[in-house]
Amino acid sequence: xxxxxxxxxxxxxxxxxxxxxxxxxxxxxxxxxxxxxxxxxxxxxxxxxxxxxxxxxxxxxxxxxxxxxxxxxxxxxxxxxxxxxxxxxxxxxxxxxxxxxxxxxxxxxxxxxxxxxxxxxxxxxxxxxxxxxxxxxxxxxxxxxxxxxxxxxxxxxxxxxxxxxxxxxxxxxxxxxxxxxxxxxxxxxxxxxxxxxxxxxxxxxxxxxxxxxxxxxxxxxxxxxxxxxxxxxxxxxxxxxxxxxxxxxxxxxxxxxxxxxxxxxxxxxxxxxxxxxxxxxxxxxxxxxxxxxxxxxxxxxxxxxxxxxxxxxxxxxxxxxxxxxxxxxxxxxxx
Length: 335
What we know:
Layout: H1 7-22, H2 29-48, H3 61-67, H4 74-89, H5 91-110, H6 115-133, H7 153-163, H8 177-180, H9 182-200, H10 208-218, H11 224-258, H12 263-283, H13 301-310, H14 327-334
Helix pairs in contact: 2-5, 2-13, 3-4, 4-5, 5-6, 6-7, 7-13, 9-11, 10-11, 11-12, 12-13
């Protein structure tokens, strides 16, 4: 009697394991980007508990809030100073509450069970920060140049919460389309970058002296190597600030329209956008002032980079764990 081949089951098992490896579901990119957003919120929360934030009087958070009133219209400025007065009289309590809210948002996004409520809270909180903490991004005072952080980093938190709202489906053609659909996502992208282009050439955004002075102010208290970069950038802006502002505006227009181009060209434009805003984050935003102390957030640079990543075109073979359509359907869709 012939004995069964003892190697057959193991070979079949190996074949099945190999097949599982080949068809293993790829990483959920929407979830990965949400974790990056949660990390940024956690950084905001940690910055909120710096000792200087609990200081009473104009030297603390209330003074920072008052400064955001700036040249805003009267009723907006009054609302900001009213809010600052609450922090002035109760610095420890109010700042503790601010930190707790941001810690709650960060850890809430990390948990899949609480992600949606945390994102909803982040939208409401970010809009409040944009109004009372950022003075509406200095849009009405003419100082909302993206080189400084305009129209306000908080608005990008709102946009990312909408685009990364947890939803079923595929990451194709890009992650931002998974929640709101490709058409709506493209409209939001074009709107955001058109606004950046407009702000780059309006008000102080194209003024060489204003751009120079902003960089000089940001250099105060920075490490020596970063202050040296600031000096070179300030001189460059003083001599060529207006051409650079218009050049930046052109870049924003190109990036806005690139979402309508073939994927290869879109990727090139996204790499350009990431490189430009990474440079801005270092050279003119000074990492949001984190290294100098007293900053409450890293500014808009990292948020714009994350936004660009949510629009990175994905190949037809790229699918999320929720994309379970048969291969024949995928081929049919591709054709």
